[in-house]
Write a structure and sequence with these properties.
Layout (H helix, E strand, L loop, with lengths): L2 H13 L9 E5 L5 E8 L7 E6 L4 E3 L10 E3 L4 E6 L5 E6 L4 E6 L17 E3 L3 H8 L3 H8 L3 E3 L7 E6 L5 E7 L2 E6 L4 E2 L5 H7 L14 E3 L2 E3 L17 H14 L6 H13 L21 E8 L4 E6 L6 E4 L11 E4 L16
Parallel strand pairs: 9-10
Antiparallel strand pairs: 1-2, 1-14, 2-17, 3-6, 3-20, 4-5, 6-7, 7-8, 8-11, 11-12, 12-13, 15-16, 17-18, 18-19
Length: 357
Amino acid sequence: MTARDILISAAAACGGTFQAVACTGISLTARDGAYVQARTIEWARGVLKSEYVVIPRGERLVSYTPAGADGLTYTAKYGIVGLSVVMKEFIAEGINEAGLSAGFFFFPRYGSYTEYDPAQNDRTMIDMQLTQWILSQFSTIDEVKEAVSKVRIVGTEKDAAIHWRIGESSGRQAVLEIVGGVPHFYENKVGVLTNAPGFEWHLTNLENYVNLFPGDAPSRRLSGIELYPIGGNSGFLGIPGDYTPPSRFVRAAFYRATAPQMATAFGTVQQCFHLLNTFDVPIGIEHPEGESPDIPSATQWTSAIDLTNRRVYYKTAYNNTIRCIDLDDIDFSRVKYGSYPLDRVQEQPVEKITVPR
C-alpha cells in the first residue's frame, strides 16, 4: 500500500464520521504548582486504533499531503511522547521534553484551511500531523505563534477540521483555530476545550448559565407554600446533561471551576480522571437502537499529562488501570522511533479479593 493509499484509508476512518467524535479537555493546577492537562477521546463507530508513540531527538520526519508522503520535511529538536490515533503520525495528545504539551480536538464545519497547492508541498502538512510538528519543534506557545503561519496546513476532508490546545508547564494555555486558512490564537483562561463551534462562541455561551452555583439552592416561599431543594447540588439545576460539544463545554467549565485544588501533581492527575469519568460517553446513545458497535464505551481513552514533571498518564475503555510514561526514564538521544498499543490485551484486569478467615 502506498503512502497516499494509507492516507486515504485514514481520512475515510476519520473524516467521514466526525459526528461520532466528542472529545473533552480540562486542566488543573496543584497547590505545589504542578500543571496538568487532561482529555478524553471519543469514537463511537468501533475500535479506534490508538498507540503511544516515542519520537527521539534528531529524528527526520516527513509530513503527509493529500497526495501522499511528500510534504514538509523537518528534524525533531525535542523528544516526544504522544498518544496517537489511526496512524502513529497522528498524535492526538502529547508532550515534549521541554514541557510543551499539545493536542487536537475535532472542529468540523467551523474550521477551514488553505487550499492544497502541490507546488508548495515542501511547506505543507495535513492537519492531523500538526501536533507532531509543534511538539518536535517548539518549547513555548509564543514560538508556535510565530512559526505556524509559515507552514501550509491542509485537510483531507472538505467539511472536517481540527483545532488545537497548546499548554506550557507555567499553566499558560492557548487554543489555535484556523478559519479561512488564517490561524487564530486564543488565551484559554477557562481551561476547557471541546469541539465546534469556535472557542469564543463557547465562552459567550457560558453566560447563559450565570445562574449556576455549587451547593444547594435556598428554600423559598411561593404562593403560600414552602419550596425546598430535592436532593443535593440543586445550585447546578439546569446544567446541560447531553453530550453535544456546547453542553460538555459548560459542564467541564463548571466542574473544573468548583473542583477543590489538590496538594500534589499526582493528586491532581487523579482528580482529572475523576472529573473526566463524568464525560464517558455510553455506547448506544449515538446510534439508532440496536445498531451500536460491540465496544465498552465511545470514550476510547482518557489521558492526563503532568507538564511540570513530564509524565503521561492514560487509561482506556478496555482497561481502567492508570498507566504512566515518565519522560525522565527515556534517553531521547538514543531511543528508537516507535509506536506501541495502549493495551497489550483489551481486557479489564480484576483483582480477586480473598476474605480473611
